[in-house]
Amino acid sequence: MIHDFYETKEAILPNKIPEFTITSIEDFNKYTNLYYVCFVFLWAEWCKPCQELKPKLDEYVLNLVYENCCYLKIDFDKFSEDPDFKMFFEKKFIPQFALYYKNEVFRPIIPMDMRFISDFVFHKMKEIEENNKLKINNDF
Fold this sequence. Notes:
The chain is globular, with a radius of gyration of 16 Å. Helix content is 40%, strand content 19%. It has 5 helices and 5 strands. It has helices at residues 5-12, 25-34, 48-62, 76-79, 114-132; strands at residues 19-21, 37-43, 69-75, 96-101, 104-106. The protein has 140 residues and is α/β, with parallel strands linked by helices.
């Protein structure tokens, strides 16, 4: 039996990080309790820098190969005044990218630059892995 190349390739690749759009604090709590580390993107529809960063960030995060992690997107306009999300809105700017881990928010120094985001993710995940035995799946 001959298999399509793409079908075969997809079958051997590890699972990608799941992506969720947050619509409530219940959603947020559900995913942060379900996943060990959450990559969080705060954005707004009207924000030009958000629209420029979004496709690059989506491609980058959704192709990471970490186990027990997810990608959460939070709309700034829906939640900027919500006290349950105050941890993300201490700094009143967008776009924002952060790692949410054990009820703490970690941010890169320069949030708009993919090189800094990539470096930040690599180093923070390595630190988390070393401190907590988080398995990073690089088996392919």
